[in-house]
Design a protein that fits this description.
It is a single chain. By secondary structure, this protein is an all-alpha fold. It contains ten helices and no strands. Helix 2 crosses helix 5 and helix 5 packs parallel to helix 8. The termini are far apart. The N terminus is likely disordered.
């Protein structure tokens, strides 16, 4: 059963998958999560609804995976030899325009998460948990290098702090987060909290 499902799910090419995710993100920007329908995605991408449901199961999983796709690169090949270098390199993978677009999408989706348990579950499974695991791996490498004290209480809050940079920039300053802002936030807030010297 599992093997059949895996084979069935693997028929979409990476190029086609990227095209579908891009269309989903465009629709999200246009109408928001609640008004987004699988019918609209099917029409926009010239797909059958059956294919979309077979590949993603439903709207929540499709949206969460599209958001994951929208984040340029990953953590796997980032290893600059320092935590500061790693975090700055990760931020450097998206330009200010992409960062602003992703932040706007996330703000809209945070609202939808509160009223949609299925979306919350999909976000946790496909976006939050993988990112948290990857961040922990990056920080653990810094601990192993002796850069971050193993008993630093801030280790558990690195993801919270990073997310805070994106959310509070718009909320408090009415400005989009930028590479420059996030890098200075990393240096002024995250690294000192972890006990890392920046100078």
């Amino acid at each position: 059963m599992t093997e059949t499902a895996t084979v069935r799910r693997s028929r979409i090419t990476p190029e086609r998958e990227a095209e579908l995710y891009t269309a989903v993100l465009d629709l999200l920007r246009e109408v928001g999560y609640d008004a987004l329908t699988m019918d609209a995605v099917a029409a926009r991408t010239r797909s059958s609804k059956a294919t979309l449901y077979r590949q993603w199961g439903g709207k929540a999983e499709l949206v969460a995976k599209a958001m994951r796709f929208s984040k340029p690169g990953g953590f796997a090949d980032v290893d600059t030899g320092s935590l500061r270098g790693d975090l700055h390199a990760l931020i450097g993978r998206a330009d200010d325009c992409v960062i602003e677009q992703n932040s706007a999408l996330m703000r809209g989706l945070f609202m939808a998460v509160h009223t949609n348990p299925e979306l919350l579950q999909a976000f946790r499974e496909f976006l939050v948990d993988p990112e948290t695991t990857e961040f922990r791996r990056v920080v653990q490498r810094a601990v192993d290098r002796g850069e971050v004290p193993a008993d630093s209480p801030a280790i558990e809050y690195v993801v919270h702090m990073m997310l805070g940079a994106f959310v509070t920039r718009t909320l408090l300053d009415e400005l989009p987060p930028t590479q420059e802002f996030i890098r200075s936030y990393i240096d002024a807030v995250i690294l000192p909290a972890l006990g890392v010297r920046t100078h």
